[in-house]
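Hi,

I'm pasting everything inline rather than attaching a file, because the server keeps stripping attachments. The sequence lines come first, and each chain or strand is labelled.
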Amino acid sequence: MPDLGRAALVTAFLLLVYATAVGAFAARQRRRRLAASAQNALIAALGASAVAAAVLLAALARHDFSFQYVADHTSRELPLGYTLTAFWGGQEGSLLLWLLVLCGYGAAAVLTTRRVARDLLAWTVPVLGFVGTFFAFMLVFVSSPFVTQHAPADGAGLTPSLQNPYMAIHPPMLYLGYVGLTIPFAFAMGALLSRRTDERWIVATRRWTLAAWAFLGVGQLLGAHWAYVEIGWGGYYAWDPVENAALMPWLAATAFLHSVMIQEKRGMLRVWNMVLVALAFCLSIFGTFLTRSGVIQSIHSFAKSPLGAWFLGFICVLVVGTTALILARLPLLRARTKLESLVSREATFLYNNLLLVALSLTILWGVIYPLLSDLVRGESSTVSKPYYNFFLHVFGLPLLLLMGIGPLVAWRRASLRALGRVFLWPLAAAVVAGAILLALGAGSSRIGVIAYTFSIFVLASIVLEFVRGTRARKALGTDTWAGAFSSLVARNRRRYGGYVVHAAVVFLAIGVAGSSAYQTVREQRLFPGDSMTVAGKQLAFRGFEQRRAPNHLAIRAVVDVYDKGGHHVARMYPGKNEYFAEQQVSNEVAIRHNLLDASDLFLIADQVNANGSVDLKVLQKPLVNLIWLAGLIFVGGSLIALWPDAREERRLAERYEGVLAEA
Amino acid sequence: MNGKHASGPTETPWDYNHAVPRNGSPARLVVALSVAAVLAIFLLYTSIAGGGTPQLQPSQLPGHQGKVTLGGLVVGTPRGDAHAAGLRFTVRDPKGIATARVLYRGTVPDLFRAGRDVLVQGRMQNGTFVAVPGSLMTKCPSKYTPRH
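And the predicted assembly:
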């Protein structure tokens, strides 16, 4: 069995080398049949890596501890589900997942674009092959999942906090996002190499980019929810380098998704788009490097792991290669139009891009600062939460505002009078909302009031866009308002799906601002019978309960919650689990959702004392559930934008026939 | 120059094939000004907030006055109550013998115990490292660590 796995990986490696080398040769010499064989090699590599993945899955399912990977990441008592998801629990398995997903994306992209963009594909396949070759090389020569050993009696098991459904699907979601960014990158580089720098590479990869970006976004929200319910410090995002690793490419990809629209519509920002897609892809490789090389732990553990040096080398090759290529093709990337006014739709897209990239790069600086200061001064120095929060406010709040302004500003050149007309209602809504919030005492957090006022402004402008569009449809002769609305969305899926995603981001902003700027935190030591008051609620500690489970002892504090009128609302059980085998204690928080106002009452038994008392930490987190609601809206909006649209495809095909005929 | 989009007064936003002389594009100005603004904000922030917090081992502590992050290995038995007078424990260089005594109040992470690598913020006061409440973190042996 392990031999089959190794052979499959070697086969995949050789096929990818073939796709790279022969593909490049064929593209250079314009050999059509050779180019087709390189494409087929890429598709065959999917088969080979699928065989390798199947071998690893089978070994996991059979508890075959002669595989070092299986013994290191699972144990006999581990439930089957978590045993199988241990596939991506370790370094070697996650590299294999990278390769598998990459080959899958590559094969799908080749098969779907073979007919419409053959000339583009000629150079795209070698680029895809090159990226794949790197990962196959790592799996074959540096970090193989098929290392065998004398089988121990039992495996090492999986860390308790990772035995959680969210942790089982969060990594593959992130990987679908990270790896998916390879497709637009490969097509962009393919377009540069083949000198076909019109907009077709963007059109060909639009849905791939959108899908990768959506997966990356959903993956992060799942990770945030996992941290919220499982890690138990009362938050969901801690600016941890591992979390930032996914946020940076997502921000860059968000910028890219917006700026390609400008290139499609106005032929501008062509160099910028190349830079952005390269940045997003390099950041996704950098993210994989961050989470897998141990460089975060310390620069010394990084030096010990062979993986890190290879990854760093690969990133250097990518950065140097793409920079050189873009510079070499600069004359081909001249814009066909120029920005006519600083108050126009194009300009707001440009501002949005600059802010997103600035945010992404300041986060990058925060992540690499400890490493750089260690290298340069020999003394590690870290930036922490205030640094990230500062830049989130400075760049994030204007971004929020732009989400409301952008859609309302006319293309090319907007007149001030027209602006006044379209902004009347959103502005009025925002001002009224701001006044109400101040009257309600929200002024305790200035950032919070600003974020909320901006949020209302954006929501109002989104509603206005839908209303105006529906009214126009109705005027065109649709019978019912509902019919007008659905045909509006169906005919402009990307635009209105985008607005839905904007609404999701607004809900996210409201949830984040509410749960951080307006949360109440109280800590108190309680003996049985004692009670404490938090945000109008009374919490009474009744004593401890203990329960013995097969692999842990569960200790729970019994807490009764009463509302202002003294009515019993709920009984909650925050506590701790003591795991025997792992010798670990884990915090088990108790959360009570209030669906009416989207707030959470979050209880942490911070310390269980021998004298029968508990140190209870209570957080009242207003609006936090809007964050998870935003996740659902985000998925909905992404699906609307992603949904296949035959009419639009035809329109695009006609448009680019013209471009082709010219060339 | 192109047959598909005849030039005329009815220009749509899609009419991007229209050639426009490029000199004096305000886009470049915007980009340059924005980059300058971002750099200015960044430099201002780092000069006022002082950049990062140094991360030191116990042996590097002498001579540092301000707030630092202390990193090291917990040795001996932690004593005291983190939610009352404070938890007292000793941190040692990961590869060395220098130690520092720490006084800490606040939430103690689940994984905290002797033998763990920890990070804690604070400053030296009369020979004791007085920690910022709630700043104790364990460097957890997570799934992200490479195998040794």
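Chain B touches chain A through 49 residues (CB under 8 Å).

If the labels don't parse on your end, tell me and I'll reformat.
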